[in-house]
């Protein structure tokens, strides 16, 4: 009987570590655009994912500078060169921004650029990995638009009389909402040339120091436009809270109801509402 002998075989590390296996791996990845660049930023290799994302065949793009993937304004600002410079200095660079396909269409991309150096530390080139995140970007923009529309509905500014605008506040005030509310109110005052603004806080559940400060800042901004503010909807509980907080409302006209504020606005404008059949 012959004695069995073990035939030596290549280890998995030997096979997977080969240059050819690495090339096959890179070219087989179709969800990422993987590009190799020379030290000057010109395309040296091109995988199937890059062809699918960007629309160029390898023979069309190899040798071209990476700036052809960037919008015109980004190229004019020197963005491609800046990214390579950063990657060379820090070893890598990652960001998100608009990129351009062969047909001119833009897509939102996540880009990772890594510097490739030899054992001596000399720069041999760059690797550039790109993911198409256009769908995510569009979803984010849609959410932002919906949030903006909801904000506009929750902070309406209406002209209720010639020279009088009303801004009813509903819900709590944070810094972001206050800024948007202030911008809408100021723009509406300018658009309608209104000298009086009624800010109604009946729908604000509670007032703390931060909320009160936001209101005072808004009132100050309105005054800089030469308009007057009447703070309406000041309920007894809100009045007590403002006193306890030590909020100084000196010089700010207040009323407990919106109708009372409107009467003040008419007085400021030297107007009076009379019945049609009032002969006096």
What can be said about this structure in brief?
With 280 residues, the chain is of the alpha/beta class. Helix content is 42%, strand content 24%. It folds into two domains: 15-137, PAS domain (Beta-Lactamase), CATH 3.30.450; 155-268, STAS domain (Transcription Regulator spoIIAA), CATH 3.30.750.
What does this structure look like?
The chain contains eleven helices and ten strands. By secondary structure, it is of the alpha/beta class. The protein folds into two domains: 123 residues, 2-Layer Sandwich (Beta-Lactamase), CATH 3.30.450.20; 114 residues, STAS domain (Transcription Regulator spoIIAA). The chain has a five-stranded antiparallel β-sheet with strand order 2-1-5-4-3, sandwiched between helices. A five-stranded mixed β-sheet has the order 6-7-8-9-10, sandwiched between helices. β8, α9 and β9 form a beta-alpha-beta unit. The radius of gyration is 33 Å and the shape is elongated.
């Amino acid at each position: 009987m012959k004695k069995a002998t073990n035939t030596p075989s290549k280890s998995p590390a030997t096979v997977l570590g080969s240059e050819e296996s690495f090339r096959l791996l890179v070219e087989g990845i179709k969800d990422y655009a993987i590009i190799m660049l020379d030290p000057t930023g010109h395309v040296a290799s091109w995988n199937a994912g890059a062809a699918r994302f960007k629309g160029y065949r390898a023979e069309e793009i190899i040798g071209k500078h990476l700036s052809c993937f960037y919008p015109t304004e980004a190229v004019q600002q020197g963005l491609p060169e800046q990214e390579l410079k950063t990657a060379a200095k820090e070893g890598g660079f990652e960001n998100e921004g608009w990129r351009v396909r062969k047909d001119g269409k833009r897509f939102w991309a996540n880009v990772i650029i890594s510097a490739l150096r030899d054992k001596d530390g000399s720069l041999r080139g760059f690797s550039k990995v790109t993911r198409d995140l256009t769908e995510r970007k569009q979803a984010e923009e849609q959410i932002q638009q919906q949030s903006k529309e909801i904000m506009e509905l929750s902070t309406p500014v209406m002209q209720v009389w010639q020279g009088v605008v009303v801004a009813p506040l509903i819900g709590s005030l944070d810094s972001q909402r206050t800024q948007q509310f202030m911008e809408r109110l100021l723009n509406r005052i300018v658009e309608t040339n209104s000298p009086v603004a009624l800010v109604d806080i009946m729908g604000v559940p509670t007032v703390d120091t931060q909320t009160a400060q936001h209101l005072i800042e808004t009132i100050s901004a309105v005054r800089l436009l030469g308009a007057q503010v009447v703070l309406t909807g000041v309920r007894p509980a809100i009045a007590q809270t403002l006193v306890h907080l030590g909020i100084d409302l000196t010089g700010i006209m207040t009323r407990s109801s919106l109708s009372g504020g409107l009467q003040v606005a008419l007085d400021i404008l030297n107007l009076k509402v009379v019945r049609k059949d009032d002969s006096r």
